[in-house]
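Ligand: Z5A. Inputs:
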Amino acid sequence: MKPSGRGRFITFEGIEGAGKSTQLERMHRRLRDEDRQVVLTREPGGTPLGERLRGLLLDPEVGAMAAETELLLIFAARAEHLREVIEPALAQGAWVLCDRFTDASFAYQGAGRGLGAERVAVLENWLQGDFRPDLVLLLDVPPKVGLERALTRGKRDRIESEDIAFFERARSAYLQRARADVGRYRVIDGGADLETVAAQVDQAWESWWRGIGG
Ligand code: Z5A
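Predicted complex:
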């Protein structure tokens, strides 16, 4: 299938260990097998500068930083990512699959760190204008389940080291955002087994795609 017109921007969201990366890679393979032009990327990161900022943001040795600093570094990485990767890929008709985007800033910095949604929204509007993901696949898991899964990777990074209440706030913010915009969000039970989650992800994006006439 040849790309036509602007591409599609699909983001995967959820707390630690929700299964985003696993499902994103699976969807990437599936779209490539269908001969679509597809770009797989992530935040923070996705560009050489963004990956360096990611290193700073996640390095436990960097230690505490002001919540505002964290938010601004994430938006600095996002600016680079948008201009260098996401916008050019969409302009070429590609499907861009992104592991986290601005919803994560609302969940982690807005709710988790307590900066509030209004301040995140100011930066979102300033950087992105009215640009938003076409579809957000929110993999929802209780923090206990997600953190246990994430722990199988070993050492926790700077943000993963937060307590469970932090992830509860992030999860609630995600769910609240999904409820407020049911057209663009699909909530998937990330606590189910891998194949069940995969089937839900396929069902979610296929029904969305049919719904917009794809
Ligand atoms: N961050 C932020 O604060 N603000 C922002 O605006 C943005 C990001 C954009 C890095 O993100 C950090 O950046 C993140 C938020 C912050 N905080 N932390 N820490 P990240 O997405 O790169 O990191 P992550 O959320 O920690 O990724 P993760 O732990 O790898 O989660 P995941 O991608 O959702 O899960 P996974 O890698 O697919 O799976 C984790 C493990 O569980 C793995 O062993 C799988 O095989 C297993 N798994 C997956 N699915 C299942 C099911 N269904 N059953 C059983 N086991 C499963």
